[in-house]
Write a structure and sequence with these properties.
Layout: E1 9-13, H1 18-29, E2 33-38, H2 41-53, E3 58-62, H3 68-82, E4 87-90, H4 106-133, E5 138-141, H5 155-167
Parallel strand pairs: 1-2, 1-4, 2-3, 4-5
């Protein structure tokens, strides 16, 4: 594959489906080598197969963005496999729970914020030294309009996405 990203390495979390898969395929079509990261191994492997079937380079890494050690291993995989990191798309997300805030358990709250906000922070923290070490790069973070205009019954999600927007 050839394009404007030839020689670049991209890491996409939540790349087993949806926006993450579409981003992985697009970046690969533009020439980037892609690290497909997700907790969904079958979906992640399918994304890799789609990229390779189109002539691109990709590798799957199972990574839970709520686990710092897995995030660091995911970022190291970019270096070990493709020699560096130029692009991070922090896309992994949790949809939250359709409940009023008073009905959210601590587990509901903690999981939603761990994936949608702390996970983004952890990915950025692990990737930034590699990006700056190569002279710069790009970080793209998937947020939601719910972070700007909260919707009813998804309070933890709204708050996590507002935090993500502020982090960005």
């Amino acid at each position: 594959m050839s394009g404007g990203l030839q020689g670049k390495v991209a890491l996409i979390t939540g790349a087993a489906s949806g926006i993450g898969r579409a981003t992985a395929r697009l970046l690969a079509a533009q020439g980037a080598a892609v690290v497909v990261a997700d907790i969904n191994e079958p979906g992640g492997q399918e994304t890799v197969e789609l990229i390779e079937g189109a002539g691109g380079q990709a590798v799957f890494v199972r990574a839970d963005v709520t686990d710092r050690a897995q995030v660091e291993a995911m970022v190291r995989a970019a270096v070990d496999t493709f020699g560096g990191l130029d692009i991070l798309h922090a896309n992994a997300g949790h949809p939250g729970f359709e409940k009023s805030l008073a009905e959210h358990s601590d587990e509901d709250w903690n999981l939603t914020l761990a994936v949608n906000l702390t996970g983004v922070f952890s990915c950025c923290r692990a990737a930034i030294p590699l990006l700056t070490g190569r002279g710069g790069g790009a970080i793209v973070i998937t947020a939601s309009v719910a972070g700007l205009r909260p919707l009813p019954y998804i309070g933890a999600y709204n708050i996590s996405k507002a935090g993500t927007i502020s982090l960005t």
